[in-house]
């Protein structure tokens, strides 16, 4: 048997990553097509694009009950996420429909932690501003706060949060964290656990590494942002909706905090008229924290292997909804 597989993750704008996934899928007999960022803004285009496919190696586009109910997608058997987060997929609806959902955990951790600490440094020392001033024909060096020896607060002490802590300790930073389900012994990491309120009040830099759930959506809002020091900075390389974007814009405009570095936004792609684009105390990048080349190749390989496993009758190693396996359609695919 063989499946028709659609690649939609925008990571595949990097040709080498696309080749990795294609080679694995095609070697297994799959028919592979490419449609980057399919349906980010157009549900009809998403439906039309997915019609007739057995599996999709997906980006951050939304998959919900309404989409699964469309007859054009009756043959869809699997969504293999390029990355860890599955907040864009309605897991209950996928399970009811018998659609397998897999992800690639543990592979992006170090790349994202690298990027998050890089954003912290760039925001603090105004590296983006300095680079842009030179490109604009000026010579205007900018002052920014020191990083060495300051206090970092980490929201979410999972794998990426721990990586961020390790990097901060190398800069002799004091590291504290908030996590309702912390590691067994965070002190062994050199991390002090705090309430979220204490963390926001005491940190010079706050870095967000929590997963997006019902509980964390809007977690960092107006009240918590106003607890931050006037010179402190917020870094978010996790998910945009964890931070109340409207409140963040307001405190940045009023300069109630020192600045922010954001790689994730409430709505992506970021709107052309977003006020974040016009602020001089914010560093914004297009959700690229995971875009390390060697890391990307490993993730691309894992996403493809998950599809091949399912197609050949084996539960993918990183199946997020294993209960769907028992009533999923393992029959021969559209591309057979």
How would you explain this protein's 3D organization?
This protein is an alpha/beta fold and 336 residues long. The protein folds into two domains: 4-107 and 292-327, NAD(P)-binding Rossmann-like Domain (Rossmann fold), CATH 3.40.50; 109-284, NAD(P)-binding Rossmann-like Domain (Rossmann fold), CATH 3.40.50.720. Helix content is 32%, strand content 14%. It contains eleven helices and twelve strands. A seven-stranded parallel β-sheet has the order 8-7-6-9-10-11-12, sandwiched between helices. Strands 2-1-3-4-5 form a five-stranded parallel β-sheet, with helices on both faces. Strand 4 (78-81), helix 4 and strand 5 (100-102) form a beta-alpha-beta unit. Helix 1 packs parallel to helix 11 and helix 5 (109-124) packs across helix 7. The longest helix is centred in the C-terminal third of the chain and has 19 residues, at 293-311.
Could you give the topology of this structure?
Layout (H helix, E strand, L loop, with lengths): L3 E4 L7 H13 L3 E4 L8 H8 L4 E4 L6 H4 L9 E4 L9 H7 L2 E3 L6 H16 L2 H9 L15 E5 L3 H11 L4 E5 L12 E3 L2 H7 L2 E4 L13 H4 L7 E4 L8 H9 L5 E4 L19 E3 L8 H19 L25
Parallel strand pairs: 1-2, 1-3, 3-4, 4-5, 6-7, 6-9, 7-8, 9-10, 10-11, 11-12
Helix pairs in contact: 1-11, 5-7
Quick structural summary:
This protein has two domains: about 5-105 and about 290-325, Rossmann fold (3-Layer(aba) Sandwich); about 110-285, NAD(P)-binding Rossmann-like Domain (Rossmann fold). About 30% of the residues lie in helices and about 15% in strands. The chain contains eleven helices and twelve strands.
């Amino acid at each position: 048997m063989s499946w028709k597989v659609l690649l939609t993750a925008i990571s595949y704008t990097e040709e080498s990553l696309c080749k990795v996934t294609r080679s694995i899928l095609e070697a297994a007999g799959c028919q592979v097509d490419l449609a980057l960022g399919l349906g980010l803004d157009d549900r009809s285009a998403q439906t039309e694009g997915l019609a007739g496919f057995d599996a999709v190696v997906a980006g951050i586009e939304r998959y919900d009950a309404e989409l699964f109910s469309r007859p054009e997608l009756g043959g869809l058997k699997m969504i293999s996420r390029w990355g860890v987060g599955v907040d864009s997929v309605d897991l209950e609806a996928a399970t009811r429909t018998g659609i397998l959902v897999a992800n690639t955990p543990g592979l992006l951790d170090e790349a994202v932690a690298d990027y998050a600490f890089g954003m912290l440094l760039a925001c603090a020392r105004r590296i983006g501003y300095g680079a842009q001033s030179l490109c604009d024909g000026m010579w205007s060096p900018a002052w920014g706060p020191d990083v060495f020896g300051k206090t970092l607060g980490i929201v979410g002490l999972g794998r990426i949060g721990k990586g961020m802590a390790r990097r901060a300790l190398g800069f002799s930073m004091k590291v504290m964290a908030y996590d309702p389900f912390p590691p067994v012994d965070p002190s062994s990491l050199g991390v002090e656990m705090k309430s979220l309120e204490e963390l926001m009040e005491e940190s010079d830099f706050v870095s967000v590494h929590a997963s997006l759930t019902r509980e964390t959506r809007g977690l960092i809002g107006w009240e918590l942002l106003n607890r931050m020091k006037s010179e402190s900075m917020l870094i978010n390389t996790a998910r945009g909706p964890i931070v109340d974007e409207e409140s963040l814009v307001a405190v940045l405009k009023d300069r109630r905090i020192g600045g922010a570095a954001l790689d994730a936004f409430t709505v992506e792609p970021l709107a052309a008229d977003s006020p974040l684009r016009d602020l001089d105390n914010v560093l914004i990048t297009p959700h690229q924290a995971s875009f390390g080349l060697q890391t990307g190749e490993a993730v691309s390989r894992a996403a493809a292997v998950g599809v091949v496993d399912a197609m050949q009758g084996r539960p993918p190693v990183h199946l997020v909804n294993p209960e769907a396996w028992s009533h999923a359609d393992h029959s021969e695919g559209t591309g057979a």
